[in-house]
Amino acid sequence: MPATLYLLSISFLLGLLGLTLHRIHFMSILICIETMMLALYLMMTTLTSFTNTATTAIMPILLLAMSACEASSGLALLVATSRTHGTDHMKSLNLLKC
């Protein structure tokens, strides 16, 4: 169990590192956020399967539902910004223009 959780926490930290360092395109930001959510989902599923408790079994399902909502709203924002600005570069987005 510790090796699995160690690898999953490293994958979460790599997603966080990618989020902080590669903020050029909006699509890369969304991919890094989805990587972090997938690592969290796998960590919750692993902990739930190792503890065998019925009360925490719903938590991975709720996280999966929330990440699906986050992904759909992120893709909707990506489509809206690419239609209005013509690109997904973060430098071209300005809050005063929108």
Notable characteristics:
mainly alpha; 3 helices; Helix Hairpins; 98 residues; 0% strand
Could you walk me through the main structural features you see in this protein, from its secondary elements to its overall organization?
This protein is mainly α. It has a domain at 26-88: Helix Hairpins (Orthogonal Bundle). It is built from three helices and no strands. It has helices spanning 2-21, 26-51, 59-85. Helix 1 (2-21) runs antiparallel to helix 2 and helix 2 (26-51) packs antiparallel against helix 3 (59-85). The model has no long low-confidence stretch (mean pLDDT 86).
Major sheet size, sense and barrel closure: none
How would you sum up the global shape? elongated
Strand proportion, as a percent range, falls in under 5%
The second-level CATH architecture of the domain at 26-88 is: Orthogonal Bundle
Uncertain residue ranges: none
**What is the number of helical segments per DSSP (H or I, 4+ residues)?**
3
* Average pLDDT metric: 86
Radius of gyration: 17 Å
DSSP summary, beta strand count: 0
Classified by CATH, the class of the domain at 26-88 is Mainly Alpha
Q: What is the CATH fold-level name of the domain at 26-88? A: Helix Hairpins
Judged by helices, strands and strand pairing, the structural class is mainly alpha
Whole-Å distance between the termini?
48 Å
What's the helix-strand series? HHH
Q: Specify the helix fraction band.
A: over 70%
Task: Describe the structure in brief.
This protein has three helices and no strands.
Layout of SSEs?
Blueprint: H1 2-21, H2 26-51, H3 59-85
Helix pairs in contact: 1-2, 2-3
Subcellular location: Mitochondrion inner membrane; Mitochondrion membrane
Keywords: Electron transport, Membrane, Mitochondrion, Mitochondrion inner membrane, NAD, Respiratory chain, Translocase, Transmembrane, Transmembrane helix, Transport, Ubiquinone
Family: Belongs to the complex I subunit 4L family.
